[in-house]
Amino acid sequence: MEGAVARWYARSTASLMPEFEADARRVAAQIAPGAKVLEVAPGPGYFAIELAKLGRYEILGLDISKTMVEIACRNASRAGVSVDFRHGSASDIPFADEQFDMLFCRAAFKNFTEPIRALQEMYRVLKPGGRALIIDLRRDASMSQIRAEISRMHLGVFSSLMTRLAFRFMLLKRAYTRNQFLNLLAQARFSSTRIDEIGIGLDIQLQK
Q: What is the pTM of this model?
């Protein structure tokens, strides 16, 4: 996602700020001051920025989109917080083993071209006992549920139409059911896994 499409996505997802704030509070409750946190595919950086406002953490974001990295860096600068956003791939995370206390990934995992490799990389860069939280669309969400979710976003007419089309013809096809995700996790080495179905999404909690 680059250029105008990335900028449109950044504007559209800004309406979900209360959810990013809630995610940041949730993660902050699980980590200690000074914890090192990696967000995989941060997009415009909203979650990482909100987390940075809550405490003294070392926060990095890794995104495959150069445009998103630029947007996230600008957003962090405007918010007056320190987050290190970098360009890179989830299937080849450019950090040494056992670097992070917490890893977060929201609304992106379904787009990874090498999902098993991405999970293995997440495992690799987490410290022993480190945690990961993945939140994403579930494939068996109904269109009525999706329409209700889009309505709650309070988008304009054009953005609402484009978002519905994206869900119907692209995002649902890429997403996973709970059982499909469990099959992916069977090829990683996490010691603890929990997957909950919440609304139209999957809430996946992992521990190394």
A: 0.88
